Amino acid sequence: MTTRTDTQRPDTRRRTGRTALAAFLWSLTVIPIGLWQLLDPATGPFSHELYEPTIRLPEAVPDWAGPAALIAAGVLGLLASRATRWAVPALFAVVFGVLMSTTAPMSFAGYLCALFIPLLIAAGPVLIARGRLAKTVAAIAVVGLLTALGFSGVVDYAAAGDFLSMLGGRFADIAAYMLVQVWLTVGGGIWAALVLHLVLHDRGDGPARAWLAPDRAARWGRTAAWIAFACSLPYGLVRMSWLTPWAWIGGPLDSSMIDPATRVWGLCLGLAALGGGVLCLGMSYRWGTRWPFWMPGLKGRPVPPMVAIVPASVMAAMFTFMALPFAALAIRQDALELIWSFPFYVWGPALGAATLAYAIRRGVVRPG
């Protein structure tokens, strides 16, 4: 008789094999990054003015030791990707995802999401309106309002364009540095994914774990989703307070000293955080599996599982990896409010658990 484990083993082996291959290929890319820093220490990615290591090496350690260790880690990663137990990949996940990560990828992702908030706000009435006529009227109203705001001077589109141009130029200036920082975080995520595969699937012929059954996953996944949602509130509400007379960040601020551009950034960043928190809840409710009515051409259809799983997994990994760098930054800058206003140490694991439960319920992950 064929057991459930036997029928699933070829598929799980293929998935684990693909993740191990990704870890192998990623390790290959780490070697030239280390060589870059070793051969060009003046302009290498770890010499950039924005680079703020989580753990600083003692001054007695020679400058070449860090990039040499990175090269060695890349070489060892080629071997570690073949591991059949989770311990060694977990070490690589911690080193690259936690110890070598900085706050740069999170800041970049946060401001990138914030840039899309005005577009979503403008498109909101059109998306929510039901029926072709209602959508047409909503679109005309939005265009008319935006035009009126421009002519009245309430919104200076020329200044907004100059700002976006300046921002694009700044991103271009730090592109190489940012790409390396993001790539190291990606590596931590790949190694963490390999650990997850090994933990879920490499258990021999034992019985399936009861807590990984879809009905059980639905229960603990919902709890995890609400915890993740709660973690989005501190940062989101702090940023939104910049729109009120009671602006706050680490203490009360004089609202008269906050310029309109800063208030707009506070609105966009706050909405991005709170919107992300709401999306966390979609992992546990029906509206996370069916496209809502306002999605043109998609309403009512099933949401492809990976559409939710991939971005949620990326953010869960990033939040988890950023916990230690943010704590280190808070301590160095004597800004301990960052520790509670950015609760990544809870947010990341909770979002990861909610995502895993969602993947189990949608049949993407079949432990065993």
UniProtKB/TrEMBL annotation:
The chain crosses the membrane at residues 20-39, 64-81, 86-102, 108-129, 136-154, 174-200, 220-244, 264-285, 306-332, 338-360. It comes from the Bacteria. Keywords: Membrane, Transmembrane, Transmembrane helix. This is Integral membrane protein. It comes from Glycomyces mayteni.
